[in-house]
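Incident log entry.

Two folding requests arrived from the same account within the same minute. Monitoring flagged them as a possible duplicate submission, but the sequences differ. Recording both here for audit purposes.

Request one:
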Amino acid sequence: MLKVVVGHSNDPDSELAIAEVLQQCRDSLENRVPKAGILLAAIDFDHSLILEQIFSVFPDLELIGGTTDGEISSILDFQQDSLILMLFCSDSLEIRAGIGLNVSADPVIAAKQAVETAKTALASAPRLCITIPESLTVSGVSLMEGLKQTLGVEVPIFGGLAADQWRFQQTHQFYQNQVLSDAVPILLLAGEFNYAHGAASGWYPIGQKGRVTKVEQNVVYEIDNQPALKFYHRSLGGIPPSMEYPLAVFEQEIMADGQHFYMRSPTGVYDPESGSITFFGDVPLNAIVQVTETSPEQILEASQLSMQQALNQYPGQEPAAALFFSCAGRRQILGTRTQEEYQQVKACLPYSLTSCGFYTNGEIAPLKLDGETCFHNETFITLLLGDR
């Protein structure tokens, strides 16, 4: 049986916050011993102290985590400057942590290191990967591609890039009792369990589609052999590119229905002379793209759609837990309405579901069931886990 518990504190004092979180977890565990955990923490906590306290109570825990732009749980709903610990107990589910270091030097080698660290301790092949990697020193797409190369594209990857409350200075990743940066921590899950996911943004394409004809990683120079800025102006009537108007990037093999795309959000940096636009994520050469727009209501509806997609696809009776990865850009746009995202999610559920999540600098998940993993911006990801 899969048992998942969560502790959540918004106490600003690190020692008091982790004491409260651990007490909540112990009360819910009812003397069970957890196998693995995920720690989500605001940037200003004393992370070393927090990890020391966790491992004094659970010395054999397989743990990963990272810093956030905001936190969500079934205990305190949406919070900022808070601390969350989710713990997993199961006899049939294997969970192992791995770590890759110095991702800025070579993200593929770091990703391979993380997978091999975790995989060697598994008795069976991994079926799912969860990651909370670095976001500021390396391309999130490169990290994701490195994980896919090592795991194989058939293993779905879920997660979000660590954040630092929109400061863009330094994020932290957690692996066992270590506080790291420039790293990629992962959990590999193997054995008997059910899962399902949903991914929705709330942005909708407008204007004409175009093809990316000149790009260097996350800087798009030309679309349809014309400056990218001109493509944006044609769709938006001169409004400059911003995270309110991201690009939809369509998957080539399922373009026919016009619905399956992932998002690339502009950073706000563009060059009027060359017409280039910089995005929060790499854009493939020859990708079919389209400018999108949204409203706060549509953003909020997407979080509910993400949960509903996951529930509709879930193969079991009731999931044991949910994990959420939502974009920090969504939080910026929603402002004081951010708390409504989790309220929309809860409205889908006739029962209380143990859950946690955070606002990320980029989301990782397949676009669809059995699809290949993609790197997203401006998207709300739901992952459900439970017994088979």
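Request two (distinct sequence, not a duplicate):
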Amino acid sequence: MRNLVLILTAFLLGACSLKPNLKINEANFTSMDSNVSIEKEWWKAFNDNHLNLLVEKALKNNADLKIAYINLEQAAAQLGIDRSDLLPKLDASANANRAKSSINAPNNKTGTFSYNNSFDMGLNLSYEVDLWGKYRDNYNASYESLKASEFDYVAARLSIISNVVQMYFNSANAYEAMQIYKETMQAYTQTYELKRSLYEIGAIGEYELAQSKAELQSVKAQYINAINTKESYLKALKILTADELDDVLYKEENYQKFTHFAKSLPEGISSTILLQRPDINAALSRLTQQNYLVGVARSAFLPSLSLTGLLGFESGDLDILVKDGSKAWSVGGKFLMPIFHWGEIYQSVNLAKLSKDKAFVNYENTLKTAFAEVRYALSQRKTSMQNYENYKALLEAQQKIYDLASIRYENGSIPLIEYLDARRNLLNAKISYANANYLMANSIVEVIKAFGGGFEMSKNLSKEIEEDAKKFDMSFRE
């Protein structure tokens, strides 16, 4: 009964904690927009089946996402380890010893060698009473670390999906630029061949022929640059999505030409942005974790109490080890009070506080970064839509100019150089329009990403991640 009372008292004492109060100023900001819901699978709104397939491949094969999940598993394993410190530990043990005492041993009165056997086995109970909440705070710190890892996984998933979508748009843009330059190069080649024929019969001079050749070489160089740009984007896209090395080495990508995206998006900063950004929640969990660890460090200043117990058998003869007469038990306690550690404990507490300070500064910086990203994304979306309309109108104007220049050149009303200028301007307008189209698409992705990509706080987040992780190709595990 006394032992039971002692254990219950220990558990009650273990409810206290030395962690400091965590004061976090509320992030006050002016909301400029009503909350807009973003679907979890927002990329499907682009209505591109090939893009959907690439995202699915990335969620299955991407190495960074797998590493984020493994980090989460490590945090969960550490939580299990720290949970065990809250509970008594029970071990089974068995020992067998045989000793020979010398004739001259102080306790040997026989004048001959003596032999002694010792056998014991039983259950050993050990428990350090959590007087100051050290183990409870350590467990809570690990729990916050697990939560942070979950948010890190969500943030990594959003980042990977966003990168896939943007790299897909950039690749599609590069493919279209290649096609424009290729068609233009073919047209310039035909023009050059015609000019060379006219030059050979003396219809035009060497100056006009050299002009035509220079234009052709310029377009060829631009076409080669477009190929390199396409390969650069394609490399990034393959790293994000590919599941086979041959896919990385040899396969091109299909794409669907992007058209105007009519989805309703936020125009200002949402009032729920703090809940929609996984990186903010991760930073807050890590700050909370470090606050608990300050309490763990402080507990080293105070005494500790350990309890031990043994229940088993011991004897000098193996044959009678488990007989009634061999039963044995013991109960003990150990009290330890630190006196002088040359500043070790003080500096450990100081280090824990400094780690908390770093976590606090990181949290504040994460908030500022999040709001800056929202501001930039909203501004970029606005300007990209304006540029899209500007370059669309420019393309229509340059197309009309080129059509009129073609007619006038055929009629001999304008010289070759004016016609080539009109064609060059049309080429540049086509390229600019394609770039503006895909910049607008990427700006939409940036807004969605800045607002958390459809992330919502959920009590079932861990289960949702487990379901998501089932898609992974983890065949490398034994």
